[in-house]
Specification:
Length: about 70
């Protein structure tokens, strides 16, 4: 972390919790740009999965089953 970044972090540490959240949101907005192509691909994938589920071609798992795999 460079000197300028360290100074900003020190200043941010003095902010209230709400101010920190606002700062985080503002910073994320500068790096997390919407991508229409990715959004379209995800929407298509979601629609495809829903259609497969509704046709009985895809089974759903209980949340506890999914989490058990990782815990």
């Amino acid at each position: 972390m460079n000197t300028a970044t360290k100074a900003i972090v020190e200043q941010a540490a003095k902010l209230s919790a709400n101010e920190k959240i606002e700062l985080i949101d503002a910073l994320l907005a500068t790096v997390d740009k919407p991508d229409a192509e990715i959004d379209t691909l995800w929407a298509s994938e979601a629609e495809s999965r829903l259609a497969a589920y509704q046709k009985g071609e895809l089974q759903a798992l209980d949340l506890n089953q999914v989490l058990a795999k990782y815990l």
